[in-house]
Amino acid sequence: MKDMVLQALPSIIRGAEITLELFSVVLVVSLPLGLGIAVLKINAPKWLEWMIQVYITIMRGTPLLLQLMFVFFGLPYMGITLDRFPAAILAFILNYAAYFAEIFRGGILGVPETQFEALKVLRINHVKGYYKVILPQVLKTTWPSIANEILALVKDTSLIYILGLGEILRAGQIAANRYASMLPFIFVGVIYLIITGILSTILNKIEKNYQF
User: Fold this and answer.
1) Contacts 24+ apart (CB under 8 A), 170-176
2) Are 164 and 5 contacting, i.e. CB atoms less than 8 angstroms apart?
3) Which DSSP helix (H) or strand (E) runs through 152?
4) Burial class of residue 205, CB neighbours in 10 A (0-12, 13-18, 19+)
5) Nearest-CA neighbor of 188 among 170, 169, 175?
6) Among 109, 57, 21, CA closest to 67
7) Cα–Cα distance measured from residue 197 to residue 194, given in angstroms and rounded to the nearest whole number
8) Residues 109-140 pLDDT 10s
9) pLDDT > 70 in the chain, percent
10) 3-state secondary structure of 62
11) Could you tell me which residue, 168 or 6, shows the higher pLDDT?
12) Distance between the two ends of the chain, CA-based, in angstroms?
């Protein structure tokens, strides 16, 4: 068993590195992108609002696994070819930006209309008003939902196995098949628990201690 652990652990750790890299890039890009989409949808003309709604409906109404397959296997038929990791990043960003957009949109619509009217009366710049006045209120009300999506993102990264990327779950499956043992899956589960546990602690601290 010791030899199996020593041989399987490096590949699982490399898989965890890929998982964390994908998670970090997607989170850093999709959060602000989702906010931008939400603001644009609320203030856009009808035709653009309709286009954004179509995008959100497609992203939320179809499985992320199917979206991954479309980006990597389908786009080449349209003359667009991406490597495995960039394809995974693109699919995840498009998917999670749609979910974050709806969360932010709900938060913005929950801000009293008098707040927006006050910004106009005081002639505060639209961008500055959103950043200084509206966004803190939106974050305060939507933070639990955002935190849930962030934790879901960690687990959803396991779907990139379909592209042949050696993320943590795929590494564990290969090791389990090689050694005919469930132990690699246990390692994978422990690593997921550690990652989500650390993230949960950070997100809860932000919610409790940070005054939006």
Assistant:
1) 170/15, 171/11, 171/12, 171/14, 171/15, 172/8, 172/12, 172/15, 174/11, 175/7, 175/8, 175/11, 175/12
2) no
3) helix 135-156
4) exposed
5) 169
6) 57
7) 5
8) 888 777 777 777 777 776 777 777 778 888 88
9) 93
10) coil
11) 168
12) 50
CA-based torsion, 82, 73, 97, 166: positive or negative: negative
Q: Which of 9, 39, 12 is nearest to 169 (CA)?
A: 12
Task: Give the mean pLDDT of the chain.
Answer: 86
- What does DSSP assign to residue 164? T
- Structure token digits, residue 39: 């603001």
Section 103-107 average pLDDT = 93
Contacts (Cβ under 8 Å, ≥6 apart) of 112: none
The residue length of the chain stands at: 212
More confident residue, 127 or 192: 192
* Structure tokens given for 167: 């993320």
Q: Specify the long-range contacts of residues 186-194, CB closer than 8 Å, at least 24 apart.
A: 187/5, 187/8, 187/9, 187/12, 188/12, 191/12, 191/16, 192/154, 192/155, 192/168
| Model confidence band, residue 72 (pLDDT cutoffs 50, 70, 90) | very high
Closest CA to 168 of 195, 198, 200, 147: 195
